[in-house]
Amino acid sequence: MLTRPAVLLHIEEAVLFLLTLFAYQHLHYSWLLFALLFLTPDLSMFGYLLNVRVGAALYNLVHTLSLPLALLLVSYIQNWPATTAISLIWTAHIALDRLLGYGLKYPTFFKDTHLQHIS
Question: What range defines the domain where residue 89 resides?
Answer without folding.
Answer: 5-99
